[in-house]
Amino acid sequence: MGQxxxxxxxxxxxxxxxxxxxxxxxxxxxxDLLTNVKALTYVLVTDTNLYGRYVPAFSKSFxxxxxxxxxxxxxxxxxxxxxxxxxxxxxxxxxxxxxLSSERDPPCDTKTVMIALGGGVxxxxxxxxxATFKRGIRVVQVPTTLLAMVDxxxxxxxxxxxPEGKNLIGSFHQPxxxxxxxxxxxxxxxxxxxxxMAEVVKVRVSGVxxxxxx
Length: 214
Fold this sequence. Notes:
Elements: E1 8-12, E2 15-21, H1 27-36, E3 41-47, H2 48-68, E4 74-80, H3 89-100, E5 113-118, H4 120-132, E6 138-143, H5 146-152, E7 157-162, E8 165-172, E9 177-181, H6 190-213
Parallel strand pairs: 2-9, 3-4, 3-5, 5-6, 6-9
Antiparallel strand pairs: 1-2, 7-8
Helix pairs in contact: 1-2, 3-4, 5-6
């Protein structure tokens, strides 16, 4: 993000929910969260592949930005194993138990905001966890793959897998914010980028076909 520029804001369902630009992970997101998506406690969940690269610096900046804004806010962080097997009842239950634990200080409550940092697995899992925790709390999506940016982070679709099949238990739970940092795409393996582009083409073609039939 340039020094004097602001991210592109995109509306979804009549709300200015989506922010798109390069290098917004960090200070820009923190200032926006602490100013416009206020909470006493924030819970950031990601996988072990992303945690070391992105979370320690974000946590350090969180405290600095909160202090600069004179805002009382706390960040709890949690990491899960990467991959589709984590999108399960067991992982969801583990996150919920961790959030409900008396060790969380301040505790997670109905005003807590969850932050999902990762691809589709993280987005689906944390979106569904937020949808059911304390009968529903706010969630912020930070997709790190192209496929998640153009599909799973948008529209509020959340779910987990079961032995009987994929995405069989879930709900619709709209994210309060979706931050799309395009810098994440520079770290993607070629295969993941191709998968994301395929979804972009599919969405575009579907739009053209629907328009031609209207």
